[in-house]
Amino acid sequence: MESSTHNTERIILGIDPGTNVMGYGVVQVVGKKASYVAMGILDIRKTEDTYLKLKSIYNKTTELIEQYLPDEFAIEAQFFGKNVQSMLKLGRAQGVAIAAALQRDLPIAEYAPLKIKQAITGNGAASKEQVSKMLEQILKIPKEDLETKLDATDALGVALCHYYETNSPLRTKKFSSWKDFAAKNETRVHK
What we know:
Blueprint: E1 9-16, E2 21-30, E3 33-43, H1 50-68, E4 72-76, H2 84-103, E5 108-111, H3 113-121, H4 128-138, H5 150-166, H6 178-184
Parallel strand pairs: 1-4, 4-5
Antiparallel strand pairs: 1-2, 2-3
């Protein structure tokens, strides 16, 4: 779904899906400035039933949407690992969170972990701790709000990555190829 980048004020809900811990982060955008609103986790490690975990993820995502009234929803995409069972479980967790956003007609964007780390730190191989430290500095997160669980800062990173992606001057125009880009940007392209 396409996001509404023309809004001067908007709320972005970021989700880091997980079958044991789901992180969430909320960013408010006013004009061209993003600021920290909230972050936290849903810890479902003690829930043994897989389907009850999925229900908890759906309910928590719905609750966050009702609480923060986001205009846009961004979620971390699955990464391809060696363990197929883990990927399937993560895909289910991601799916129920997306379903909650779809139920509220929110525009949805997915970002790969490498893309998120690149957007926040400039390094796609950055550690979770490095992402957390950069978010603390960029968004001026109060020390008392800094979540000890890195899933929360990861989710905040998803939201901020979405902000960066949707505010990029190159994103406002769609290009079908480099030739199309050159044709629409003659003053910027040297021949």
